[in-house]
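Researcher: Please generate the 3D structure of the following complex. Treat every line as part of one assembly.
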Amino acid sequence: MGNTLWGMEITAEQLSTAFGDTLYMVAISLVFSGLIGLPLGILLVITRNGHILENKWIFNVLNPIINILRSVPFIILLVALIPFTRMIVGSAIGTNAAIVPLIFYAAPYIARLVENSLLEVDKGIIEAAQAMGATTWQIIYRFLIPEGLSSLILTFTTATIGLVGSTAMAGAVGAGGVGDLALAYGYQRFDTMTMVVTVAALVIIVQLLQSTGNFVSKKIRRR
Amino acid sequence: MIEFQNVKKVYQTKKQTVEALKGINLTVEKGDIFGVVGYSGAGKSTLIRLVNLLEHPSDGRVIVGEKDLTSLNPKDLRAEKKKIGMIFQHFNLLNSKTVFDNIAMPLVLSGTPSKEIKERVGELLEFVGLSSKARSYPEQLSGGQKQRIGIARALATNPSILLCDEATSALDPQTTSAVLQLLKKINKEYNITILLITHEMSVIREICNKVAVMEGGCVVEQGSVFEVFAKPQTDIAKNFVRTVIHDEIPQSFLKSIGTHIPIIWKINFIGTTSGTPLLSTISKKYDVHLSVLSANISEIQETPFGNLIIEVTGNKNEVDKAYQYIKDEGILVQEVQING
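Model: Done. Output below.
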């Protein structure tokens, strides 16, 4: 045991490692789930009825799959994906192992949020783009995304905060992180001080994320 | 330039089919400012969207500059669309981009070199009188300024046709007038054919040379603006004309009518004839008394268009002679029937 801090059963090193683990898991899973969720969200928008790439098949297949994935509780997903995780990362426990289910959890969530953000974009702007003879790809990256960017930033803020929450449960597969400390020491060992400190740390992380997101979003929206 | 050949548009919803257009035949000639007027739901919005295939016709053909756009492959279609500019009621500018970038957009889409873009956008900004706003965002502009930017953007690719979808309906009367003058200037200076839709007859009067009146998915009346203003045939056209030219017999006069039924004439002057002192000539030449119930002179395409309602008294013979005289002068005169 190293030096304990403020009467907690955990050391400062443990706390900072946990911080690092949380940030690592959130960052990596955010990148991957974003890479999957963003295109899926765009697809959900443009294939719907009356949109630029209207396609009943894609929409009607994609839509329920996303709903199903989103309705599975994270803890179940974590366990159910163990064989798959083992195949990908070579192990079913540890921080890297937690990232796989985190991506499965966050990607459909992001897809849905992206869909909502992009649906807010005025249809008139898409109409103007079509009138100009823009290609589908041009409509997406020259019109849809820039016009929805401010809202997309908030979307990704929400998704990131959601991921911070989910990492707490990733402790179940020995992933570590701040949430795991709160559960293992604060909750299960009745170490109130650890509980308070870890929860406070999570509150600070979430606050920081949200205010950064709000700030950037506002900056893009221009007043 | 634009030809609608028996065009139909049917919308299929789960419960019902809606016939938005029921066989439209219209021809817009090169250089026209062609106005389509109608109440909301008449189908004019669908009509204008068929020209650049924002909507596809269910039946019939739309020929734009000798081409049926529905027969083109996607690449050729995009190229054709660049020859058709469009402006919108709610401007549809990108709020995330500056005025400069908004106007530049059609050029960016076609891969124009940035030096050329800079030149062209500068020209366009000057043309619409907003050079100082290049770095502003649409949010910082008034409605009229936004529409000027919309116009500049529509002109960026040097189109031969400009479609105006209720372009002034969200603007106040003064701004409307300024935007309409700009459209007129575009038509004259660049020889761009304009097709516009509106629910305001004043817009038609101010800039159009031809007009079509739509109701229930059909064109119920069409012709030169003069024809339709002077002699509207259908009730709906009459209603529209009445919104800008007040030629009603005053209520107070109607109330004062007893058992004697007065003779009332409606006289339309067009162009130079409105300058001739018609009334004084008649009252000198024939033994009739004239009293003016309503008089109105407005301008259509810079030509005076007068509207006069007079009550005529005198013996029948003289009255008939006077009537014939006006007719022989080539002036449009009609007897107005008063019921009751």
